[in-house]
Amino acid sequence: MEKYRDQKVRVIYLNLSIVFLFILFLVAFFPLGAYFFTFVAVSVIAISKIDNQIKKSSLFFLTLFFLLVSIVINEVSIQRFINGNDDFTTYYNNYLSLLNGNMSDIFYFGGGFEVGLPLISLFLTKIINGPYPYVTQIFFIFLFFLSMCVLVEKNTIFRNDNKYLLLIWALLLFKITSMLTIERQAVSSFFVLLAIFSFSNTKKGLFLIIGSLFHLSAVVVYFLVNMILRVKTFKSAFGIILLCLIFLVFSSVLLQFLYNLFPNEKLGYVVYFINNHEYIINEFVKSTKQILYVLPLLIFAIVFKIKGHNWNLLPSLFLFVSLMLILSILPGVPTRIFMPIIFFLYGFYYYDFFCSFNQKNQVLIIIAFSLLFTIYKVIIPGYYLRYPMVETYPFYYVSDFYQSQGNVQRSELPESIIINNENKL
């Protein structure tokens, strides 16, 4: 009996060795393939019945590491400094200024109060010590990844029956590409969610203060996002929607009054373009693109409700989608104030809904989604613009990580461009 058990263990370890060698091969030559395959592998490990939890955790996080590496390669393949709408250009210029010893630029953002990101950039100047924008992005990808792990651990609103699966869902719908364009609000959103997940008022206050050091909107965003996440009934959701519609009727006068009291660039932008139909249509399109990620979930949940299966987060998701569309009349507002949900929580909503499904079915759904996002990265021209998707020599992309870049005049970059990247091979 013992001999049979030892033989079985050896077979398992042999199979695992083959799997990890295959993943390493994909990372080296075909990283987008590694992205898909590691989602498959890590999902299977998440529901596997391994008695030794230490071994299971080790296998899970080792596979997760390969997933993280493949995400890094995917994201760094996107060319920066070609579009004037990318805030990363401003952040990188600030990094360069600090690299050159201009310490006063720590107080560059938010009237000198938003020192959070410049302090991180100052730290990076000591570690990276060079004009390497894509290396700084790799650091932020790791930072956002760790932030998601922390949120999964600290989560107090969504179900967490299987934290492994919750983390996989969260990473699957993680908006890292967008987060790398507006890093200040991305980091601020993390602290806003920590405040929402905390029971202690002291911790809430501390997290909001830290979040405000990255973006002054943290307190306002906290109240709005917290309101959405706490809604449990459609009666409350429709009440909030009604109040929002009433606010919009008087929004032009109210926002002008607020701008006169607290003049700032972002509020001034909304006031200036509030009656500009082109900007409103553009904002509506942006909001629609963002909610497309959760629209299938909303439809599924409504169908299940009609059939008598209630999901307690349906009013919350319905309210979020509704406000994203309604507030599109205010240019730049919905996608900014609901960033914590857009950046971090889509996967939490999906996991909470599919928690009632059989775990094997969950894995099949995750595999389907990961295949869809893999195909998406093949189709969208921005990915693998800096280096090919497949190559014949290993780790061919590493040298491109260290591409140097001097100061970029953002005002001279075009607002929109057409990328021709049909042949990614």
TrEMBL record:
Residue ranges of the TM segments: 12-37, 57-76, 106-128, 134-152, 164-182, 206-225, 237-259, 290-306, 313-331, 337-354, 363-385
Origin: domain of life: Bacteria
Keyword Transmembrane helix found: yes
Keyword Cytoplasm carried by entry: no
Keywords: Membrane, Transmembrane, Transmembrane helix
UniProt cross-references to InterPro entries, sorted A to Z: EpsG-like
Family annotation (Pfam families): EpsG (PF14897)
Name assigned to this protein: EpsG family protein
The species this protein was found in: Photobacterium phosphoreum
Biological classification of the source: Bacteria, Pseudomonadati, Pseudomonadota, Gammaproteobacteria, Vibrionales
